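Forwarding these from the shared drive since the link keeps breaking.
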Amino acid sequence: MIAVTGATGHLGQWVIEKLLATHNAQDLVAIVRNPAKAQTLADKGVQVREADYGNPAALASALQGVEKLLLISSSEVGQRAVQHRNIIDAAKSAGVQLIAYTSLLRADSSPLGLHVEHVATENYLAQSGVPYVLLRNGWYSENYLASVPAALEHGAFIGSAGEGKIASASREDYAEAAVKVLSLDNQAGKVYELAGDNAWTLAELTEKISALTGKTVVYNNLSEADFAAALQGAGLPEGFARLLADSDVGASKGGLFDDGHQLSRLIGRPTTTIDDSLKAVL
């Protein structure tokens, strides 16, 4: 039996969909905070189990009978380390035989502030005694493509990534990789540095937007402070705005670039290009 945390999230939904193609629905467990959001999964025969990351007892109950767990990192930055520890402890008490954790690309040396909680989780996994495999995911193409409508509206794409290369891939690509690892034997102790085959800069992305739409869009590279302020002005909470700006600066330092092609080798095909993802969005 395979369990997935955050099963109703963007990545989790893709993972469940891919698992359903190769596994019996009754052998899949979707761990969610709000079962109402997972009704479509329940209708397909997936076991939906409710558990809050802050409730160790509920987590331990939700993981009963589970052999492998995909721990998709929490979206609550600042609370991730504690939440992840709760899940790992629950998995250990439930006798889970393998945890696959979605970490960050080169987490142990990343210039992104996001790496701190990922490293803390990786270290806790190492101390837990539970066999584990690390899926160090690079950036999702969707992270930047969500800004395309605003860029078209204002004629400008803003960021702080400078000339930093971003080796992104689609969420579907990363989901396929997770499913492949969960389906293979002898994965304990492995570390996968996962990123897209083709890297690009924000200036190049902007050129692609212009070429595909016929509208002039320019890339404005801002300071970290100015980018964070602009994001706040667009309605994002201060903490999240600062996080995104920090990540862009990290990208300018090479934090989102990797040319090892481990992702495409793992899924057995080239990763989805930013061009294809952009065309889909447009």
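-- next protein --
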Amino acid sequence: MASKFQFKFSPKLLPKLTSRGNNYPEWRSAWQIAFRYAELWPIVSGKTKRPDTADNTQNDWDANDNKALVMLISAVHSDLTMSVTSCNTATEAWTHLAGRFD
């Protein structure tokens, strides 16, 4: 008999990055796995760049980037929200946090 594994992703169960970033290594590892699970890691990591042509692929990339940004906003302490929201892309926000706390 085949087993059906069902898992519901809940960002609330993941660590939030503290305002001082003292939990950054734990936070980074957990959220990297979460972005992989959500199939957004290529965008967050910068591996998948925004397409140059204005078509559906660009719209899809923009939608996924926005999802990743929302996840990042929910992943940080409220003191860090402005620094994340000041970034234009999820890659930029991830890089900003790494530069600040890594």
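Residues 56-74 form the longest helix (19 residues). The chain has one domain: 16-101.

- D.
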